[in-house]
Task: inverse folding
């Protein structure tokens, strides 16, 4: 496929990578760009040779936010009738894990898109924030919900009400990201994690991702019931048989992803 606003490649076996590619706009999230991101990620998601995906920008910016020029002049009704940024990023349709590899600015919609991914690897230059307050608006693509769940109410309030930014080490400390690495290593770290995921049973990966995401949507009792259901589904897979036999026979499992 040929794209105008993104770059797509496979940096390692089983790993698909999507790079935001609007460097002059610091990878601002325009509607055409997000449409291309969705098209590429849905293609990777349906490719049986791909087990995990990476979403990234460049060293200067993951994404500095939504495209303000695109939104300027739009009314509430215009926004209501427009597919929103987070709706364009159709994470709920992706069964395979997505790792955000973040360097530089991850602000506003950029921070929200990173948080919508399953994991975040940050370079030492990463800067996370929700500066919508400076525009007289609020986060509208999940920031008030995902950031609060990640770092807690008090810090989320400070970030969104005062435009406080979190550097990579702070983001790691507060649980917003799962890895922080030097600038020249963060992409290798993201690829390494993606490879580890891609080498596992894709049946088990999918069932695990579903169950973890339900932890944010259900009561503990409901979540445990959902986990139990997925646990039983896993016992009906060929990969369960192979995984246990390989463990007993002390050899590497050969997954069929069935």
Result:
């Amino acid at each position: 496929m040929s794209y105008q606003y993104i770059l797509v490649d496979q940096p390692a076996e089983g790993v698909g990578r999507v790079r935001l590619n609007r460097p002059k706009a610091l990878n601002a999230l325009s509607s055409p760009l997000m449409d291309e991101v969705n098209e590429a990620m849905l293609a990777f998601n349906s490719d049986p040779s791909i087990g995990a995906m990476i979403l990234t920008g460049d060293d200067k910016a993951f994404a500095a936010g939504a495209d303000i020029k695109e939104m300027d002049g739009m009314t509430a009704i215009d926004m209501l009738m427009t597919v929103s940024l987070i709706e364009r990023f159709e994470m709920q349709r992706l069964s395979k894990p997505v790792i955000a590899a973040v360097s530089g600015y991850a602000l506003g919609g950029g921070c929200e898109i990173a948080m919508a991914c399953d994991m975040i690897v940050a370079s030492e230059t990463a800067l996370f924030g929700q500066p919508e307050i400076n525009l007289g608006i609020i986060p509208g693509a999940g920031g008030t919900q995902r950031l609060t769940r990640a770092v807690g109410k008090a810090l989320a309030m400070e970030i969104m009400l005062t435009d406080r930014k979190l550097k990579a080490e702070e983001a790691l400390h507060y649980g917003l990201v799962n890895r922080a690495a030097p600038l020249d290593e963060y992409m290798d770290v993201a690829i390494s994690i993606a490879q580890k995921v891609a080498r596992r049973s894709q049946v088990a990966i999918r069932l695990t991702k579903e169950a973890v995401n339900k932890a944010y949507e259900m009561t503990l009792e409901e979540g445990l019931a959902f986990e139990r259901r997925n646990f039983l589904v896993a016992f009906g897979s060929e990969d369960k048989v192979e995984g246990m036999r390989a463990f007993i026979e002390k050899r590497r499992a050969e997954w069929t992803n069935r």
Summary: The first strand starts at residue 6 and ends at 12. The chain has a mean pLDDT of 93.
